[in-house]
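TASK: fixed-backbone design
INPUT:
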């Protein structure tokens, strides 16, 4: 099923059914809820702080010691998808590199 098929089906729905469908999506999918939260209240600085913390968490988790570089990269990707400004996306990318340098300085070079 493609996007055009989805659009055709959504056009068939009345307003109340469409609102109910979006509400269900909001409840079931975290990415959708984040998108709608940002769409309704576009506080880019607050969103940046949240994703900056996710990048930090990839290097220095609050629980455990496992390094998760892919979580940091996906945080950058998710921030970009939500519509973060290019300046803040670049700042988040630089923060990722800075955290990598700090981690290497703290623990040494890890293979």
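OUTPUT:
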């Amino acid at each position: 099923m493609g996007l055009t098929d989805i659009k055709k089906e959504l056009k068939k729905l009345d307003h109340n059914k469409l609102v109910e469908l979006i509400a269900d999506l909001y409840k079931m999918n975290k990415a959708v809820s984040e998108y709608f939260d940002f769409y309704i209240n576009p506080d880019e600085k607050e969103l940046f702080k949240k994703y900056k913390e996710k990048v930090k968490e990839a290097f220095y988790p609050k629980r455990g010691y496992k390094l998760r570089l892919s979580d940091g990269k996906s945080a950058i990707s998710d921030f970009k998808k939500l519509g973060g400004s290019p300046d803040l996306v670049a700042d988040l990318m630089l923060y990722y590199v800075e955290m990598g340098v700090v981690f290497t300085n703290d623990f040494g070079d890890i293979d």
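COMMENT: Residues 74 and 82 are 12 Å apart (CA to CA).
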